[in-house]
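Your task
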Amino acid sequence: MSLQKADERTLIKSYLDGDQASLRILIERYQQRLYSYIMMMVRKRELADDIFQDTFVKIINTLKSGNYKDEGKFIQWAMRIAHNLVIDHFRKSKKMPVAESKPNHEDRDIFDTIGITDPSVEEKMVTDQIHSDVKKLIQYLPDEQKEVLFLRCYAGLSFKEIAEQTDVSINTALGRMRYAVLNLRKLVEEHDIVLTR
């Protein structure tokens, strides 16, 4: 069987047996998903590059030390490492204060207000600006809310996967997402951002 089509377990074993190409295949398989997640969190290419590199250094060190527990969830494990490195960065740099959520707003998802159509150039520019504004506001959320929002909306994980990755119950993950949306709604109102084209 070609290494390109091999599963994670085979690639990891092959890498540990000395085949460097196996690691390269593993990195290429998940680099876009991991890098996109990191970039969305930190919003600075140079910093994202550093954290991405640190993520794979940590992955390699853990694999070589024999501490990787193969449960067929390599990407979740890799995302967790990346996430922890991003959180470490935010903790060290002590990011800006966050908005407190107020549960008296109606329950509508802030992302539902951004329509999906075949946009004209102008509509695309407006939509890009809206997305850019929302991404900036996301940086003001508490870390646990920012984490669940990115994992759900940008990394595409299910709430079950988020719960496993963040070591909380599904209800806690859902609650954090709800408060993230409420907080974002409040921030949108405070910053007078219009979320429709």
